[in-house]
Amino acid sequence: MFEASLTLVLYFLSVTSLLSFKHQHAWTRLIRKRSYVQLCAELQGSVPCPAPQAAAASPHWARVVICGGGIVGTSVAYHLAKLGWTDIVLLEQGRLGAGTTRLCAGIVSVAKPISIECQMASYSNSLYQQLEEETGVKTGYVKTGSLCLAQNQDRFISLKRLASRLKVMGISCNIIKPKEVAKLHPLVNIHDLVGALHLPADAVVSPPDVNHALAVAAAGQGVQILERTSVQQVQVEKGQVMAVETDRGSIECEYFVNCAGQWGYELGQASETKVSVPLHGCEHFYLLTKPLQEPLPPSTARVGLSSSTLVVIDMDGRIYARPWQGGLLSGGFEKNPKPIFTEGRNQLEIQNMQEDWDHFEPMLSALLRRMPGLELAEIHQLVNCPESFTPDMRCLMGETPGISGYYVLAGMNSSGLAFAGGAGKYLAEWMTYGYPTANVWPLDIKRFGNLQEQPNLPATQSYGSHASTGARWMEKHGFERPKYFVPPGKDLLSLDQSKTFYKPDWFDIVGAEVKCCKEAVCVIDMSSFTKFELTSTKDQALDLLQHLCANDLDVPVGHIVHTGMLNERGGYENDCSVVRLSKNSFFIVSPTDQQVHCWSWIKKHMPNDPHLHLEDVSWKYTALNLIGPRAMDVLAELSYVSMTPDHFPSMFCKEMSVGYANGIRYALHVYNEVMSVGQKYGIRNAGYYALRSLRIEKFFAFWGQDLDTFTTPLECGREFRVKFDKDTDFLGREALLQQRQDGVSRRFVMLVLEDHDTELDLWPWWGEPIYCNGQLAGTTTSSAYSYTLERHVCLGFVSPPLGPEGLPTPITPDFINRGDYEVDIAGQRYPAKAKLYPFSSLFTQQKRRKDDMELSNLQGK
């Protein structure tokens, strides 16, 4: 039997009313048990845990069943009801909000790593602020503001980059000096700080009160909330959610939402069709002090804001601190977190979570270094509460692959309160409209595959050879693949300590790989890319692809077609290459992290036809990319097949014998043969950093970075890959025709930075604001140093200013070609030249003329 939330937890708490931080190591371990209800009341000082109520009757049918009565589940119910949904049932195994929600620290901050998380936190802040007026339930909302501290230049630069992104979103923030930090928070020791980010709109709330307010609002709109109801499994028939089995009977439903928090994984495994929810529970510690002897005075630097003490987030110290009942609440994230379940499988209910002062000691030391004035503060208690974490520290959201109607919102990585409002809104939109109103791909549960559940990362078949040739590795969708290859004699340690935001130590190594790709031949292992085979007995495979793809797939056997798979809005669900192997057989190659997403998209639109078959063959093929002007020479020596352009034209696929392997299935000895034959042509290995540089200087967009479900081919210059006149009506056609008629309001552009010193200036990454004529015009999506242009290149989208009525206006070539562009890198703007086509040929000609002039001058001397 599965249970969806926490009912009762016994905490072991130290009696430290007469002891200070200074005497912490001399404490006698006096332990007492305290009930969960008592702990909740003391922590929150507001609404106690609700008393048990008589069980309401379980309905036999609902449109949607939500499992989990914490702040995430109640937010989903609240937002679905707001969007007009009826017949909503929220199930909670214990009492509403009696799990992690009850014990979280209550901080709502927008200081998050990626833009979509900042947007969710900003929306949550606004929602929690107005909930009290909407429901009459006090939420404990106080706009305290927060300080994100930087102990070193790298952290300070990262905060400056964050500030640039937040300002684009209209969120107030300021980069400040250490002296200003001392004025805003007198307890903070500033001797080792280089600066900070001040976020005046950040807030603190009472999490159980916010949860209660959301539940009250949802119930007022017809949501039925059932406490003490345990979910046992989700029934699925033919890939569709049909019912939810509980300990009080079965509820037939069309949709199910897994908001079970740390129990989300077990709930997924307990269903008839197993659902992968990659998260794991860890212990999270925070400390509570008694009221300080000297209350903090109101800050003179916070005109017009609450006089409450600011939240302090010390990322380098791995700690945070917020005001709490006249004292402080302080916790942190240790380098060696303690998993809650050490036997490899989760239990259904936490029976005891004990304090661990030895484990908390590094965070306690960091707190005392940051706030030495707390040394004499009296301890109230050390709290140990559960939190769930995901492999990439981003939450899980969206419809699960393979089961229609089964949604997940879990794995909040200790930011559940900050994300719950925005995440609940986006998931409700997703369920209502088929898509959210923002690009949530970085959070989509389909970004993970089965590989992420394995303890060891898989490697390609050429891993051993690469490892022996100096490969430096990166991870992508569970695969290890090479970034670059260190030449013999290079200091590997210095590369591990490479500069974060400036010119990296691998610069010359990647430059040599790029040069070899352009002048000789390189091998790039691309085995991690997603590979599917779609086959049928008649024309079913072709008909399906013609419906899914914007380009025309009815091409002769052997031809390769680059195409997008679009949604009804004309946005990219996939960007792929399709090879027609035979009349009724197609080979589809997509980006690595498209494996689950693309599979789900194709299966969603496949007819129920036993003669139509889709197979994931990613593991069956090793893919070696031979790139460079001598690539054909290498292949010509390995095969009897003619490599001349007449016999092997561009965008063509052909089966051939290479070494000892038949067909296009490569093996390790083929790699060795390729490297052996290629020695005379100067062959070498190249990694993905070189590939990225080549891609960006050629102005090639990449799905997941530049392209997303909101980007259309007309916006990124790929209208030539859309065949409006083909016989089949493809997905997104009507939307593209309408967009072509109305005009495109944003365009994908290439920007080459000018007056930017590669040696001394900060490097662009992605997400930097783009300004045109002094006004915000867009953001970058990817960037790289171009070794050909000898400058940095950024790709991104720009839009003209809104029209007089606040509506988008069509973009014109003049706006791009004649605008004065700048790219903001951590608050410093650099001029840039924008174009709609690659700069390569233009700059190559200019460089050649410059070299000729220098040679002439030298000869003249």
TrEMBL record:
Pfam families tied to this protein: DAO, GCV_T, GCV_T_C
UniProt-recorded name of the protein: Pyruvate dehydrogenase phosphatase regulatory subunit, mitochondrial
Family: Belongs to the GcvT family.
Key words, A-Z: Pyruvate, Signal
Domain FAD dependent oxidoreductase, first and last residues per copy: 63-430
Domain Aminomethyltransferase C-terminal: 746-839
Domain annotation GCVT N-terminal: ranges: 463-662, 666-726
Lineage top rank: taxon: Eukaryota
Any one GO cellular component localisation term in the record: mitochondrial matrix
InterPro entries: FAD-dep_OxRdtase (IPR006076), FAD/NAD-bd_sf (IPR036188), GcvT/YgfZ_C (IPR029043), GcvT_C (IPR013977), GCVT_N (IPR006222), TrmE/GcvT-like (IPR027266)
Residues spanning the signal sequence: 1-17
